[in-house]
Amino acid sequence: MEQQLIFTQHVTEEIDRLADRINPARTFVLVDTNTSHFVLPLLQSESEAVKGATLITIPSGDVNKGLESAAIVWKALTAARASRHDLLINVGGGVVTDLGGFAAATYKRGIHFINVPTTLLGAVDAATGGKTGVNFEGFKNQIGVFSEADAVIISTAFFNTLTHSEMMSGYAELVKHALLTSNKEFTKVITHELDDSQDADNSTLLRLLEHSVNIKKKIVDADPHEAGLRKALNFGHTAGHAFEAMALKQLNPVPHGYAVAWGMVVETILSHMIKDFPSDTVHALAAFVRRNYGTFHFTCDDYPALLSFMAQDKKNHDAAHINFTLLEKVGHPCIDCTADDKQISTALDIFRDMMGI
Amino acid sequence: MEQQLIFTQHVTEEIDRLADRINPARTFVLVDTNTSHFVLPLLQSESEAVKGATLITIPSGDVNKGLESAAIVWKALTAARASRHDLLINVGGGVVTDLGGFAAATYKRGIHFINVPTTLLGAVDAATGGKTGVNFEGFKNQIGVFSEADAVIISTAFFNTLTHSEMMSGYAELVKHALLTSNKEFTKVITHELDDSQDADNSTLLRLLEHSVNIKKKIVDADPHEAGLRKALNFGHTAGHAFEAMALKQLNPVPHGYAVAWGMVVETILSHMIKDFPSDTVHALAAFVRRNYGTFHFTCDDYPALLSFMAQDKKNHDAAHINFTLLEKVGHPCIDCTADDKQISTALDIFRDMMGI
After folding, report:
1. Scanning every residue of chain A, which has its alpha carbon at the shortest distance from the alpha carbon of B138?
2. Angle, CA B95 vertex, CA B252 and CA B306 arms, to 5°
3. Alpha carbons within 13 A on the beta-carbon side of A142
4. CA-to-CA distance for A251 and A352, rounded, in angstroms?
5. pLDDT tens for residues B78-135?
6. What residues of B are in contact with residue A225 (Cβ under 8 Å)?
7. Between B35 and which of A90, B31, B98, B101 could a Cys-Cys bridge form, CB atoms 3.0 to 4.6 Å apart?
8. Are strands A321-329 and B332-340 parallel, antiparallel or unpaired?
9. Phi and psi, residue B6, nearest 5°
């Protein structure tokens, strides 16, 4: 069965329709301690499937995204004698859909599961594409499998409990998908105002989200196991992960999407230097990022540490070059590009200049 | 890459050839405390790939086939910073290939792995077909995935350290595959003598094994995720698991293959009763099983317990009927057949009569 992506403001109707079609003997709902509080009551009051389901709760937060939490899910399924024909509904952000997907894909070698992402970041990224997993020994998603949910129900209905920075963090992935697509998409995304009163019902945001998730889907369908093309989705993430890691080391962590936003600026600069990516687009992106994400403060004394984080982040072929996904122009990613320390340092100089630090 | 099945008496040559082709940066070899002692020294002395590999050892036995042992493998891979392009070679019986396959398939969402089964049962069954997994909360293979090894190297070279009952236990699966194929294959398998001095080098056994594994491969390729046809491979296992479970409960465990051999006799009797399976083949099988496996002793007082085990063993659609794979004739399996308690009791009566108990 191909994965269904459903964009809707009527989540509970869709859950019940899908549950009817899958027709499991038993339904299970996975939440974390956050979504249990903020989202579950609504689903329980409106969805027959959720009302009749067995509830499984895991502690919230990336620090709890480990085998211990997966075991909570496996134990609950085992205790209820769940069969391969039963259904798990994952309700939450990326931690819940990654972990719930992994638990479902490995219980009796795979049962049905549906993802209901409750954050913008989860909706635009984690919940689709089949990457499931848990952290292990301090490494992110070290244990996991590729396994697509039967369906993903994407809605903006739960976003009203998110903070502004949680929203912006997810929005960075929309910007990334737009950069992988077309100038038209890019312009549309960077001119949308998240807090626009014209979009109080989030209908414009939902349409943007639909576009964005379908861009990802197209890439994933062409290369589900990341043999090549899918690496395009790593755009912004090599430099981004370095910012994220450095901020964490300085005990001043930044949201993932903020680090990716800054990383995309660095990597469009590199794309300009190495692949002749148009400079006006670099400037348009930098202005958008500076306005919405502020900046990350660092000096040239921090370059060696940032370069070292970048070298660790990717499977690099040799020590002298770091692997990047770059862009020739908007919509034309180029995977497995490399840059040396000198080029990256120059890009960081230009980044600091553009971001006013 | 399609799974390669290699039948050879030159195991180490094949390991090195495959390792050359996969060309991993790092190679890991998984053994248990048995194969570490009996098999590893030979491989280390003759194979360059094994000589240069990092060794991972887990405790032997089904009781150790759990997440704790999988974590030993994941930890060793993590400690060595293994990448998605590295290789795990699983050397052992079904426990090692099931567990090693699961660990490899879930580490960074899947690395290369090769199975080198060292028992007849492992060679004819567990090592091929992509069913990986570990036990959980007392349930066999409760956590796992479908993931085929890059290659399986099948040889009789390691069988000289197996006991007669270990050999016979594996041989039951060859009989099963023959019953799913043709009268010719069935006759060939039940007339082969395992201890025949004419086959001191096991070349005839290796050819029988090649036939048998290819029968399984054909079925698995047509239905890898057991949606239908693959259930044919469950032939003999509904009654067989009931004998196995009862023996275990009586603290007098029997080898898996022995239980399957008796189970096949019961299920050919049922096939005769329900599907008109030819009675002369029932008699030929019963005589072969009685001669080579002896029998399992039980009285009609044990029927309710046996029926209860059968009801638990399968995902039955209703309480009044138990699900079986039956045979219309040799080579014509019929999946999702049902029998009621009365029919099964009659089959058990006939079984006791035929087996002289």
Report:
1. A78
2. 35
3. 20
4. 22
5. 999 999 999 999 999 999 999 999 999 999 999 999 999 999 999 999 999 999 999 9
6. 109-110
7. B31
8. unpaired
9. -120, 125
Amino acid identity at B228: G
Sheet with B112-117, edge to edge strand ranges: B4-7, B151-154, B112-117, B87-92, B27-32, B54-58
Q: What is the rounded distance in angstroms from the CA atom of residue A61 to the CA atom of residue A68?
A: 13
**Residue range A270-310, pLDDT digits in tens:** 999 999 999 999 999 999 999 999 999 999 999 999 999 89
Place of tokens 């009654």: B239
CA of A41 to nearest chain B CA: how many angstroms apart? 31
Tell whether B110 is within 8 A of chain A (Cβ).
Answer: yes
Which residues of chain B are within 8 Å of residue A106 when distances are taken between CB atoms? 106, 143-145
**Residues A70, A143: Cα–Cα separation, whole Å:** 11
Q: Are A172 and A255 in contact (CB under 8 A)?
A: no
Give the model confidence (pLDDT) of B125-150 as tens digits.
999 999 999 999 988 899 999 999 99
Look at B142 and A84 and tell me if their CB atoms are within 8 Å: no
Q: Give the number of other CB atoms < 10 A from CB of residue A267.
A: 32
Q: What is residue A352's predicted lDDT score, i.e. its pLDDT?
A: 97
**From CA A253, how far away is CA A244, in angstroms rounded?**
7
Instruction: Write the single-letter amino acid at B154.
Output: I
With residue B203 as reference, give the H or E element that holds it.
helix B203-222
| Residue B357 one-letter amino acid | I
Q: How many angstroms away from the CA of A124 is the closest CA of chain B?
A: 21
Q: Which residue has the higher pLDDT, B206 or B198?
A: B206
Per the CB < 8 A criterion, the answer to whether A86 and A25 are in contact is: yes
Angle at Cα B145 formed by Cα A73 and Cα B174, nearest 5°?
135
> What span, in angstroms and rounded, lies between the C-alpha atoms of B287 and A126?
59
The gap between the terminal CA atoms of chain B, to the nearest Å, is 51
Of A92 and A227, the structure prediction assigns the larger pLDDT to A92
- How far is the first Cα of chain A from the last one, in angstroms, to the nearest whole number? 51
Q: Which among A141, A145, A315 has CB closest to B145?
A: A145
Place of tokens 């004394």: A301
> Cα(B67)–Cα(A67) distance, rounded to whole angstroms?
9
CA angle A265, A271, A273 (to 5 degrees): 110
A169-198: pLDDT as tens digits = 999 999 999 999 999 999 999 999 877 777
Which residues sit opposite A40 in a β-bridge?
A: none
Specify the DSSP element, H or E, that contains A182: none
Residue B263, token pair as written in the block:
């189970």
Task: Look at residue B41 and give its three-state secondary structure.
Answer: helix
Q: Are A145 and B106 in contact (CB < 8 Å)?
A: yes
User: Count of CB atoms within 10 A of residue A251's CB?
Assistant: 6
| CA-closest candidate to residue B71, choices A78, A82, A134, A58 | A134
Q: Letter for the amino acid at B326? A: L
Query: In the prediction, which pLDDT does B119 show?
Result: 97
A312 touches chain B (CB under 8 A): no
Q: Which residues pair with A56 in a beta bridge?
A: A30
Q: Tokens 């032939």 — which residue?
A: B235
With 0-12 CB in 10 A as exposed, 13-18 as middle and 19+ as buried, what is A175? Answer: buried
User: In angstroms, how far is CA B107 from the centroid of its own chain?
Assistant: 24
Q: Which residues contact A341 (CB under 8 A, 6 or more apart)?
A: A307, A320, A322
ipTM of the complex: 0.92
Report which of A325, A142, A167 is spatially closest to residue A239, judged by C-alpha positions. Answer: A325
Q: Supply the pLDDT for residue A317.
A: 53
Task: Return d(Cα B119, Cα B162) in angstroms, integer.
Answer: 7
Q: What is the DSSP string of A82-99?
A: --TT-EEEEEESHHHHHH
Question: Read out DSSP for A295-357?
Answer: -----GGGHHHHHHHHHHHS--SSTTEEEEEEEEETTEEEEEEEEEHHHHHHHHHHHHHHTT-
